Amino acid sequence: MRPILRLLDGELRERIISEGRDLVCNLGVEIHNQRAVSLLVDHGARFDAARGRVFLTQESIDTALASAAGSFTLYDSHGDDAVHLGGDAVNFVPGSSAIAILDSATGESRSPTSADYVRYARLCSAMRHIASQSTAMVPSDVHERISDSYRLYLSLMTCEKPVITGTFSSEAFAIMRDLLVTIRGSREALAGKPLAVFTCCPLSPLKWSDVTSQNLLDCAAHSIPVEIVPMPLAGFTAPVTLVGTLVQHTAEALSGLVMSQLANPGTPVLYGGSSAVFDVRYETTPMGDVGTMMIACACNEIGKALGLPTQAYIGLSDAKLLDAQAGLESSMGATLAALSGINSISGPGMLDFESCFSLEKLVLDNEICGMTGRLVDGVVAKEDFPSRRRFEELLAEQHLLISDHTRRYLREEIYFPGPTINRANLARWAEEGSSTLGARAAAEVVRLLGEYEPTRLDHDTRQELKARMERAAAAHGMDRLPVIE
User: What is the pTM of this model?
Assistant: First the structure.
């Protein structure tokens, strides 16, 4: 039996959905993109120009829910199946868009560079329990106007896994689309085998900016999957109650779903979220708070009830270092997310309110992800009945270390973590140097980077990617891209 976490009963879940639908139809959504407004009005929405609000119809919501895919698959850079998103499938992906990296040598946060990004992408290739890569950090050594497309470029050049990405500008989308098409060979091939998911975040309360609306429509036009990620803050930009925040989250997510499906019915959409509680004591948005985690898991239940695959930012920490708090918050979130069946869990590697990335934490989180994978596999009988014969063998031998049954099922039943997790007894631990968690994680980063094997992209594809990125850089005054070893 697969263990499952549920926070909402059916009646409460349906009431939240009903109230969310009511909000977008009767309070409306503020939309700052004329193309999006026109699209909605053409399909029956009412537009109040004085307030800039669009009032959706229940029919448009029903139509969008009917056309959106209940599941979809991401493919790696070679076109092989990589990530299934739907049902109770659980997949982990690193957190995104950190503006700092935790320097393991100094123990301090600093601005990331292109070299840091490449080390991350190489390391991500080796993370067995992390299915996708993300554009995890923002390199500071390129022009800010190309930072979105440049991150995707580095990911595609370095790691073969699918990419969770996004852009903060409308102009970057065309470059990013071209990079993805270069990998696939044509727009049709990219639509048939998606390589990336773009994150689109409405603003709270009930608002879509010009740029984000445009990104959503552009992705839909090219059948590029999107994850719609509302970010209401309980007690600040949303009601303080978890239920009230869930109502608002539902409304904001539905408004994005309607736009995507009207633009191109069938566009793959993840029902996502990065909602959080607001800690009025520090004026922060703690992603490691239990209430934040509960919102994420409950949003998953709502998304599944709507027939959509799901995403959430959970399994990350607000700690500033790789310490006990980082382990506590990350492992608790990852476990709850896996038990809830969230399809795409964004968080590994992330610290400090989604603003700082740590390679050492990514290695630790990879082990956490592996443990949760074993947990959701549940308890299954494997030649355990009838039991008497096995116990006769145990009584005769006084152990089952080399039993055929043990050798057959050892790796399936018992999760063996890598060297980051120390399971030696005290005497052996001391004999082997009394290493700390941080030291073991740092050593594992060095080991895995030393074993990195370049992607199998052919020379012509790599050159075409580079040429496209160099043209974008030149348009913003950069005569060359940073040199990456």
Answer: 0.97
